[in-house]
Amino acid sequence: MVEKTSTPKEKQIVPISAAVADASSNQKNQLRSRNGKSLEVPSHGRYGYSAIVNRPDFNWPDGKRLAVYIGLNLEHFSFGDGLGAELCPGGPHPDVLNYAWRDYGNRVGVWRLIDLFDELSLPVSVLANSSIYHYCPEVMEAFRKRGAEVVGHGRTNSERQGILLEAEEQQLIAECTAVIADFEGRQPAGWLGPWISQSHLTPDLLAEAGYGYLLDWCMDDQPIWFSARNGGRILSVPYPQELNDIPSIVGRKDSGEQFAQMIVDNFEEMLEQSTKQSLVMGIALHPYIVGQPHRLRPLRRALQTIVAKRRDIWITTPGRIADYCRTLPEGIIQS
Predict the structure, then answer these.
(1) Which of 5, 89, 205, 253 is 20 to 30 A from 271 via CA?
(2) What is the C-alpha to C-alpha distance for residues 223 and 211, in angstroms, rounded to an integer?
(3) pLDDT greater than 60 at residue 110
(4) Are residues 246 and 287 in the same domain?
(5) What's the DSSP call for residue 17?
(6) Do 108 and 172 belong to one domain?
(7) CA distances from residue 50 to 127, 175, 219, 329 in whole angstroms, order as listed
(8) For residue 45, what pLDDT is reported?
(9) Which residue segment(s) compose the domain that 149 sits in?
(10) What is the reported pLDDT for 35?
(11) Are 31 and 136 contained in the same domain?
(12) Distance (Å, rounded) from C-alpha 322 to C-alpha 125?
């Protein structure tokens, strides 16, 4: 991902606690080198290796094999401080150009996308910074009226949670959760860290805070159970970093047409692959990127391709995917 710090002075990265370091040192994979000596490779310790071709088979609801969801990132940024994606690098401080470019998404782009989702009758999951509720409440009200799922996405995308101490990260999660619960009447079930940022303890803290699934990991095309401390667990639902407009358009400088064609090619290929295994295909969007008119048009064409196959696929949300996984017999979803 391409990101920037809007002030010349970098925020000092806080080292992880000794307890976390001890836990990490105990989570080692034992490998054998050619001379027979063991090699210790640090591991996250959250899940084991599982080849997708060797797993128990299952279907999605109604016998469908490919689940497709859209994750719409609604993000609010600090002015003149903190992190943020860049349209043009190296701007003066305060960085008016890039701040205003991102703010276009909340003022204009998101409303164009709402029209598009309504036009195609597409459900959407909103991955929301909690500060969005106070900055542009009309946006969240519009999605509430449409019954959109809300996923916790931190307080603001001007900060990362992965550099925080345990108590600080607990507070960030608690603050974001409380705001969403206050406005929506229920706690979000899912979480995506701002900037896909996690500490060594994030899955533990999310499970202990009542979250059922997280979206930060892109290592699989099926949901995977993560182990958490004290015997807990939390589900990892696949979240895309390829079909994601920030790495594609901001990072690799792909055009809107290229990004849209990626969506179509990915969909058609996964639809064929799903005859062998049931799969999840996510599409990650940001209103300040694909909400621009010249990118919205090719995106519409790509989504029309998916909608044309509506009878063959499960168009859903990550929350519904997680709920369905819990109904499957133990051992079907790998850990």
Answers:
(1) 253
(2) 15
(3) yes
(4) yes
(5) P
(6) yes
(7) 28, 36, 11, 17
(8) 85
(9) 52-325
(10) 63
(11) no
(12) 13
Tokens of 47: 């899940």
By C-alpha distance, which of 76, 58, 18 is closest to 287? 76
Which tokens belong to 125?
């999951």
Residue 4 included in any domain: no
Number of domains in the chain: 2
- The tokens of 287 are what? 């209103």
Least confident among 13-17, 54-58, 178-182: 13-17
The whole-angstrom separation of Cα 162 and Cα 197 is: 5
C-alpha torsion angle, residues 141, 295, 288, 281 (rounded to 10): 70
Tell whether 9 is covered by a domain. no
Average pLDDT (270-282) is 99
Least confident of 1-15, 104-118, 224-238, 256-270: 1-15
187 and 160 housed in the same domain: yes
Tell me the CATH number at 177. Answer: 3.20.20.370
Check residue 117 and give its pLDDT: 99
For residues 244 and 182, state if they share a domain. Answer: yes
Query: Could you count the other beta carbons within 10 Å of the beta carbon of residue 41?
Result: 9
Three-state SS for 250?
A: helix
pLDDT at 23 over 50: no
Query: Does a structural domain hold residue 256?
Result: yes
Q: What is the DSSP string of 195-213?
A: GG---TTHHHHHHHTT--E
Least Cα distance to 74 among 144, 15, 169, 162 occurs for 144
What CA–CA distance (Å, rounded) separates 113 from 290? 8
87 and 35 both lie in a single domain = no
Query: How far apart are alpha carbons 44 and 28 in whole angstroms?
Result: 8
Band (pLDDT 50/70/90 cuts) for residue 83 is low
Phi, psi of 82 (to 5 degrees): 85, -170
pTM for the full model? Answer: 0.87
Separation of alpha carbons 68 and 318, rounded Å: 9
- Give yes or no for residue 81 having a pLDDT over 90: no
26, 137: one domain: no
Rounded to whole angstroms, the Cα distance separating 64 from 278 reads 8
**Do 41 and 103 lie in a common domain?**
no
Which residue type does 90 have?
A: G
